[in-house]
Amino acid sequence: xxxxxxxxxxxxxxxxxxxxxxxxxxxxxxxxxxxxxxxxxxxxxxxxxxxxxxxxxxxxxxxxxxxxxxxxxxxxxxxxxxxxxxxxxxxxxxxxxxxxxxxxxxxxxxxxxxxxxxxxxxxxxxxxxxxxxxxxxxxxxxxxxxxxxxxxxxxxxxxxxxxxxxxxxxxxxxxxxxxxxxxxxxxxxxxxxxxxxxxxxxxxxxxxxxxxxxxxxxxxxxxxxxxxxxxxxxxxxxxxxxxxxxxxxxxxxxxxxxxxxxxxxxxxxxxxxxxxxxxxxxxxxxxxxxxxxxxxxxxxxxxxxxxxxxxxxxxxxxxxxxxxxxxxxxxxxxxxxxxxxxxxxxxxxxxxxxxxxxxxxxxx
Length: 364
Prior knowledge:
It is built from 11 helices and 16 strands. The protein folds into 2 domains: 5-166, Rossmann fold (3-Layer(aba) Sandwich); 169-326 and 353-362, Rossmann fold (3-Layer(aba) Sandwich), CATH 3.40.50.2020. Strand 13, helix 6 (259-270) and strand 14 form a beta-alpha-beta unit. The longest helix is centred in the first third of the chain and has 15 residues, at 15-29. With 364 residues, the chain is of the alpha/beta class. It is globular, with a radius of gyration of 21 Å. The strands form 4 sheets. Strands 12-11-10-13-14-15-16 form a 7-stranded mixed β-sheet, with helices on both faces. Strands 1-4-7-8-9 form a 5-stranded parallel β-sheet.
C-alpha cells in the first residue's frame, strides 16, 4: 500500500454521495474517516470563499464535485439563486486554492466534465472545456477523473497530466441483467444502437462484449438556425439490420431534454422492436418528465437506466420506468486504486468483468 495519506474533500454538490463513498473506503481500509470538512460561504453580494476545516499538508487529496447539481441555492442581494455549473466550478477552484499548495497531490473527481458539450470550435466561440482543464493544471491539479466524456479527445489538452475517462459499462451490464431475467444474448434477439454518430464508440464496445450486432442513427441538423444553444435536429436516419422482434438497447452519454431519445425510440418501435431499453450515463432531464412520461405510456420504451454520478431529482427516482445505477463502489475503488498507485486499466475498460457477468447470466 502507498504511504500517501488519503483525504477526501466533498463540495456541497456531492456531499451525500461522498459520505457513502467514505463509508465504503473506511470499511475496506479499517479506518474511521477520510472526509475533510470544506465550505464555500458566500457574502451578501454573492461572492464566496473556500474554507477547509483541517490540514491537508502532504496528503493525497481527492475533491469530488457535481457541476450538474441544480438543487442547491444561495442568497445574493436577499434573493435565492440556483447554483449553475459555473457556480460549482468556481467553488471547486476556491477549494483547490484553499489547499494553498500544501497537499502532496490533488485529484479532482468530476463525473460530468464541466462544459464538455462545448468540445470543439465551429466559429467565433469559446472553448470552455479546454480552458477549464488548463486552469486546473495551473492550480496544481495532478489528476482528473471523469466519466464517459462527451469527447474523449479533450484529454489531449493536458498531455502530461492524468485524465482518467471511466466507462460505466460494467455497472449498466450488471443492472440490466439483474433487472431482466429473460434477455436472449445473441444476434437474433438483441441489438445495441447509437442514437447518433458520436455514441458509436460506446455502442461498438457494448456490442463486441455482448457478441451482438449494432445499429446507428445519423442526426440531420438544421445548421442555419440555433435553438436553445444548439442546431435543431431535422430527422434521425437509421443504419443497421432488421429490428423485427428484437430487444434494442440505446446507449448514450446523456439525456438532456429527452426529445432526441424519444424520436429514436419511436423509429425503433416502428421498425418492429420488441422492447427498448436506454442506457445513459448522465440523466439530466433538463426538460422535465412530461414528454418521457407520455412516451412511456405510449409504449415507446420499457426502461431507462442512468447512473447516480449526477444529482437525481426525487421525482425521477419515483418513476416506474427508471432504474438508478449506483457508482459509489466504483468511485471508491477508483480512489483506492489511484491512492495506492496501482493500474487503472481494469477500471477504465472493464471488458473482462463484463464478460464474466454475461457468461454467468447465460449459464443460469
